[in-house]
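Workshop exercise sheet. Pairs work together: one partner reads the sequence aloud, the other fills in the structure field after running the prediction. Swap roles for the next sheet.
Pair: D.N. / O.F.
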Amino acid sequence: MIVTEIFKSIQGESSYAGLPCSFVRTTGCNLRCVWCDTEYAFYGGKEMSIPAILDAIEPHHCELVEITGGEPLLQKDVAELAAELIRLNHKVLVETGGSLDINVLPGKAIKIMDIKCPESGMMEQMNWDNLNKLSSHDEIKFVINSRNDYDWAVRIMTEYQLDRRNLVLFSPVYRKMPPEQLAEWILQDNLPVRFQIQLHKVLWGETPGR
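Structure field:
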């Protein structure tokens, strides 16, 4: 696998926000979201075997491990890595942009799947079949940049009845969408979603490895 970085931090997103977590950030992404905050993971990185990755996270002593990117599903060995982490009694999160088939992952892996809103510029890359492949423990994330994105996300959530099957996360684009505005819209519409901000950025800003 090609890996950009491995580090220990506070999980900043999802229903696991606030917990200590080991992160394995893979290199490469097939999408180019306008608001992407990890462009440094598009290129470079180093090749690591699965045993080497396991050795790198072992000193962290974290039950929770997230495989992220970039887009981790571009890595042909990502399913094997997830399965090995699960075998070692880790709870495994996999953050994916929603364009690639999630069925390659083991069932016990928890998918945190983006649905790309219009202002990401990547909406048309969404693989809508993935919605039928989610398990009940998986989570769906909308990253929202404007009222237009918000209204679109609400329409998609309602049309597919996403909140009846999975936890739905609404997240503001960092330093672009005022978080208090998104929170107000959610309260006004009484949406059955979880509002989130990126806790790691509140703590450390946009520092790689955090």
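Discussion prompt: The chain has one domain: 2-204. What would you look at next?
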